[in-house]
Design brief:
This protein is of the alpha/beta class and about 325 residues long. It has two domains: about 190 residues, Rossmann fold; about 100 residues, no CATH class. The protein has twelve helices and eleven strands. A six-stranded antiparallel β-sheet has the order 6-7-9-8-10-11, sandwiched between helices. Strand 8 and strand 9 form a beta hairpin. The protein is elongated and about 80 Å long. The protein binds iron/sulfur cluster (SF4). The site of iron/sulfur cluster has 10 residues, from helix 5.
Length: about 325
């Protein structure tokens, strides 16, 4: 079998977390030639210091495998809008998301001449997408029926085609179920995997507050841009008359908002007091400028003044404009 397996190629989904690393190592140990695939969505909770993309890259270098990174965006927005299989606690369309990812993986398998897909999925670890029935749905709808090998739970699942045909040895796989990390840590030690990160990062779509923001965004635009989504991760948000106002909560957010501003946006700050940087996206009627100015004043140090002067400018111009507001009119402003 060793000889035969040398010719077999598989694509592995590599998030960079422990489960997918173990899955890769287990099939590599059986002589399978592995190429890896990593997905990045704008909803990953990764930061610049702990990015799953970085972890996937590190793992691919360590295991000497080729890595391709896929950026999914527009297709993802469509499934958030209309999830065929429903959503989780937020607006996370996990089943549709996995189907989308596996369809992309199938395309990559065809391109690379790979015979099957390897994942680090663990039966019962994730409530929506790792139930037995969900796994079958995902396989069938992605066109990968029988072609997914899940080394961590393989012994608890129906044998896949690669197992039946002896491309991989099912006996060497595991029977892990549920959320305990202990069996994975033991296996990582057995495989001599000294350095591995914590479980791979999360997804903002499972967060109720972020989901509400995302739903508000989808209510004012058919297809948001990536920049629109990045802006959702910062500050207080107000969706007003089909427009959007974003108000920084601290200096770091003020800087981030400024860096995300686009030519057609307006930026705003109190002229004589410290406080938030505010961004207006959409058209800039007098009404919305006034609303944004009130919010800028209400969240700044000048909130107790009777009147406040607010400056605003376009990111493409160095010229400031000014508007004066009566602060008592801003007392009832409450936003998330
Ligand atoms: S949590 Fe987010 S990234 Fe993960 S399967 Fe669900 S929608 Fe997809």
């Amino acid at each position: 079998m060793e000889q035969k397996n040398k010719k077999i190629k598989a694509v592995a989904m590599l998030s960079g977390g422990l489960d997918s690393r173990i899955a890769v190592r287990m099939v590599q140990e059986q002589g399978v030639d592995v190429v890896a695939l990593n997905y990045v969505t704008p909803f990953c909770t990764c930061t610049s210091k702990s990015s799953c993309r970085l972890e996937a890259k590190k793992a691919s270098v360590e295991y000497g495998i080729e890595l391709k990174t896929f950026y999914v965006f527009e297709d993802f927005i469509h499934i958030i809008r209309e999830p065929k299989h429903g959503s989780g606690s937020g607006i996370n369309p996990c089943l549709d998301c996995r189907i989308l990812m596996f369809k992309k993986a199938k395309e990559y398998m065809d391109e690379m001449g790979a015979s099957f897909l390897v994942t680090g999925e663990v039966l019962g670890e994730r409530p929506m997408s790792q139930r037995p029935d969900a796994m079958i749905t995902i396989e069938n709808e992605s066109g990968l029926s029988g072609l997914i090998v899940r080394p961590l739970s393989a012994k608890l699942l129906k044998p896949s085609i690669p197992e039946e045909r002896g491309w991989v040895d099912r006996k060497k796989f595991l029977e892990i179920e549920g959320r305990s990390r202990k069996p994975q840590i033991e296996m990582a030690e057995k495989l001599g995997m000294g350095d591995y990160p914590c479980p791979a990062g999360g997804c903002l779509l499972t967060d109720k507050d972020f989901s509400r923001r995302m739903s508000d965004l989808l209510s004012i635009t058919d297809m948001p841009s990536r920049n629109d989504v990045f802006l959702l991760k910062v500050g207080r948000q107000r969706f007003y008359q089909g427009k959007r106002i974003v108000i920084g909560r601290n200096e770091k957010e003020n800087q981030r908002i400024t860096s995300l501003a686009r030519e057609k946006d307006l930026l705003m700050e109190a002229a004589d007091f410290t406080g938030p940087t505010t961004l207006i996206r959409g058209d800039h009627s007098d009404d919305i400028i006034l609303e944004a100015a009130r919010l800028t004043g209400a969240y700044g140090k000048g909130r107790d003044e009777a009147k406040l002067k607010i400056k605003y400018w376009s990111p493409k111009s160095i010229e400031n404009n000014y508007v004066e507001i009566e602060m008592k009119e801003s007392e009832d402003l409450v936003i998330s």
